Amino acid sequence: MSDIASLPIGKLAGVAYFDELMLFYIAILANALGIPCVVGVGEVPGLRGGELLIVDGNLAQLIRKPTNLIVSEYGNVLANQKEHEHSLSALRELPATAVDGVRLEIFANTDL
After folding, report:
1. Domain range spanning residue 27?
2. Which of 5, 8, 63, 69 is the most interior residue, by most CB within 10 Å?
3. Is 111 part of any domain?
4. What are phi and psi of 4, to 5 degrees?
5. pLDDT digits (tens, 9 = 90+) for 63-107
């Protein structure tokens, strides 16, 4: 698992983890880094380095040899997702407040 944390984030487009051991740690770490992740896909026969893959973390799919149309559609999905995340970024600095006005403090222990 620590191998993922040591990779250069700018060069990592997705994570396909073939085994199911500790899969939730991999998924949590990838999600925290904003990287699509699919876990427990099992062995992928004939998979070679440099082969074009699409890792769809939303649908838990690993797509091999996607057509140009599929690549284009996923490009649109990514652009829309980034636009949506950007529109939400202004909310990041607002205080967390419950509906009744009580201010909340939110903490997370990711053990990183």
Report:
1. 2-93
2. 63
3. no
4. -65, -45
5. 999 999 999 999 999 999 889 988 988 888 888 999 999 999 888
